[in-house]
């Protein structure tokens, strides 16, 4: 816990050096939903992006896929957006690998997954019950991923994109901003949210599961759940790049593209079982055919 908070402090210090105030208490309060000072100057840029995106869809029957399209539509807004958003999207596997490995959030979650794996192995050999516990955590991840994405991220406050109650929760705010940015951008998760997420999951694993299941099994659950988070982050990052993808990975990208076109579909990332069960699966081709202009799917 001390190491995790140390990592957070280093990150917050770096942000403060760049005149961005991110106090620890405020960030944790935002995560759990306590009203705080979550409205930042950059919100005005995201609100303008939302307005331009809606207007672009209404007038041109098309979605903003890249920063180049935004430049053609609003040069000043494109310039402001590039100050706070990374649009230098990788186009090759080499570029993608180098960029992704440099992301602090990936480094942190990978370290957390490896650390929990090492801790579990220190307790002794893995047994069948560990496999069952790990699979249970894996199944739970996909259920809660769909539920959080559909019911919370897209289900609160109707269609209002930036209501005050959502600004008070950092995770909601990050997701809302993500949906108004042109699709192709470096979709890296914020380090602070990843640290807070892992702290909460660790507290639940060792505070709730450990007294019942024992420390080794609780660590197995934590390791499996954290690994699912790492896979989710990696797939989501990959879908927003321009790297040519084979087979299944291309289908993951297309499903996520369809979600950005129609936010009522395809809430899962990678494994679409919950979407199939809930009836929220919709292929990209079908989403495109339902739009009034083929440019919706022109990127």
Nutshell version of this structure?
This protein has helices spanning 2-17, 24-32, 43-60, 67-73, 75-84, 93-101, 104-122, 128-153, 164-167, 170-180, 191-213, 215-239, 247-261, 273-278, 284-289.
Question: Could you explain the architecture of this structure?
Answer:
The chain contains 15 helices and no strands. The longest helix is centred in the middle third of the chain and has 26 residues, at 128-153. It is an all-alpha fold. It has helices at 2-17, 24-32, 43-60, 67-73, 75-84, 93-101, 104-122, 128-153, 164-167, 170-180, 191-213, 215-239, 247-261, 273-278, 284-289. 68% of the residues lie in helices and 0% in strands.
DSSP strand content = under 5%
Poorly predicted sequence stretches spanning 5 or more consecutive residues:
15-40, 157-168
Question: Would you tell me the overall average pLDDT?
Answer: 81
Q: How many alpha or pi helices?
A: 15
The SS-based structural class is mainly alpha
The largest β sheet comes out as: none
Order of helices and strands: HHHHHHHHHHHHHHH
Distance between the termini: 44 Å
**CA-based gyration radius:** 20 Å
Number of DSSP strand runs: 0
- Shape, per Cα inertia axes: elongated
Write the layout of secondary structure elements.
Elements lengths: L1 H16 L6 H9 L10 H18 L6 H7 L1 H10 L8 H9 L2 H19 L5 H26 L10 H4 L2 H11 L10 H23 L1 H25 L7 H15 L11 H6 L5 H6 L10
């Amino acid at each position: 816990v001390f190491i995790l908070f140390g990592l957070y402090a280093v990150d917050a210090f770096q942000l403060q050096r760049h005149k961005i105030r991110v106090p620890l208490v405020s960030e944790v309060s935002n995560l759990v939903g306590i009203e705080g000072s979550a409205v930042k100057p950059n919100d005005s840029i995201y609100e303008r992006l939302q307005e331009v995106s809606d207007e672009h869809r209404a007038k041109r029957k098309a979605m903003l896929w890249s920063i180049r399209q935004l430049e053609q539509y609003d040069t000043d807004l494109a310039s402001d957006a590039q100050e706070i958003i990374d649009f230098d999207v990788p186009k090759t596997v080499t570029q993608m690998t180098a960029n992704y490995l440099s992301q602090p959030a990936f480094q942190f979650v990978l370290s957390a997954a490896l650390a929990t794996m090492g801790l579990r192995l220190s307790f002794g050999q893995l047994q069948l019950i560990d496999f069952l516990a790990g699979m249970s955590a894996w199944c739970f991840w996909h259920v809660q991923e769909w539920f959080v994405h559909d019911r919370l991220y897209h289900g609160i406050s109707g269609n209002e994109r930036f209501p005050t109650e959502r600004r008070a929760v950092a995770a909601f705010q990050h997701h809302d901003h993500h949906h108004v940015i042109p699709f192709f951008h470096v979709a890296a998760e914020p380090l602070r949210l990843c640290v807070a997420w892992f702290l909460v999951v660790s507290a639940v694993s060792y505070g709730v599961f450990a007294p019942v299941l024992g420390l080794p099994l609780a660590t197995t659950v934590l390791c499996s759940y954290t690994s699912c988070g790492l896979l989710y982050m990696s797939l989501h990052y990959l879908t927003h790049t321009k790297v040519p993808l084979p087979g299944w990975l291309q289908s993951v990208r297309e499903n996520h593209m369809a979600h950005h076109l129609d936010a009522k579909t395809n809430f899962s990332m990678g494994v679409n079982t919950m979407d199939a069960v809930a009836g929220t699966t919709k292929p990209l081709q079908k989403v495109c055919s339902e739009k009034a202009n083929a440019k919706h799917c022109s990127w």
